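Q: Structure for this?
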Amino acid sequence: MPQYKLHYFDIRGMAEPARLIFHFAGQEFEDLRYDRQAEWPKVKPTSETGKAPWLDVDDERIYESLALTRYLGRKFNLAGKDEMESAQIDSIVDTCKDFFDEVQSYLSVKRARSEGNLEELRPKYDETCKKWYTYLQSRLDKAKSGFITSKISWGDFLLAEGILTMQNFDEEFAGKYPKIVEYKDRVYSHPKIKEYIEKRGDLLY
Amino acid sequence: MPQYKLHYFDLRGMAEPARLIFHYAGQEFEDIRYPRENWPKNLSETGKAPWLNVDDEKIHESLAINRYLGKIFGLSGKDEMENAQIDSIIDTYKDFFKEAQSYHAVKRGRAEGNLEELKPKYDETCKKWYTYLQSRLDKSESGFIASKISWGDFLLAEGILTMQNFDEEFAEKYPKIVEYQKRIHSLPKIKSYVETRGNLPY
């Protein structure tokens, strides 16, 4: 069995889907979490891309969260039943990424990490959310499994994490998208990750 | 054999890597190209292009398409770790290209901005990315980003061609990178297509 070391910050963010995969698979891994202020400045130069997360698999290193999450998804049978399903997972996740890029400015202001006028940003945010969550619901309806493909995948883990984050920053979210929250709860209540989710602590992001 | 239909605009852009894969594999496909203005957006589930029909199935998102076709046509890595490395390099490249594009947009007069102010950051970003790419090429020793040619090389080659089209200093600054691009574009299985496809700047 290879030695796995996941390097990131002490947030859910871009690394939590990978953590969920490890817990789902019952696979031991080193869950390294660098303090942004105290440790990251010294660690950053050791990152070839200057960014986190990255994953060590014995002597090999994978940068970029989607690359490492997809790798782990494939390794642990969480990547769809065939190449077409894998492609659908990739496609939905990439579309989700575009969505998060678009709502980033609004969420950032809401988290008080940047300046801006929430009222001005709100309509675009609402419209973007509506478009994406309507699309996601249509994909869930199409799959009929309760997940985005025929069985649970790394894509569901990633989407569930995003939905949790949305709920943490948008108090109206559950009221507007109850079926989406149900989907997230369904993913989180999977026996193989339920316990980890309950114990991991409430990180906002 | 499935029926393939690729839907995009009449650009190289996000769809050219997929076109290269089809030509490399000698696989027939419908190469549908919509005009930029008033294109039938409602045909796309995400409102964006490209997308790929494979018989009755549809794949949206260019990287998902490229990765899928790469797998199907033997243009992915030798194992899952190599696939992860290709994915990783392409994702890092994506971040770079976004930044470079905003500079190019101003250069092309498609966006407002002060070129002189933007240039130093653009130069720095290019240097960082192309130094990184060169280090990955040096590491793999095959002349490609993985142990053999992959969809990732097609994507990067297209980007390097675009860079040369918008930055007249590029070839001088990054000769080995241009060599890499030419090496890919002169592969026997795609050489003829690349030579006859026409000079789309982007």
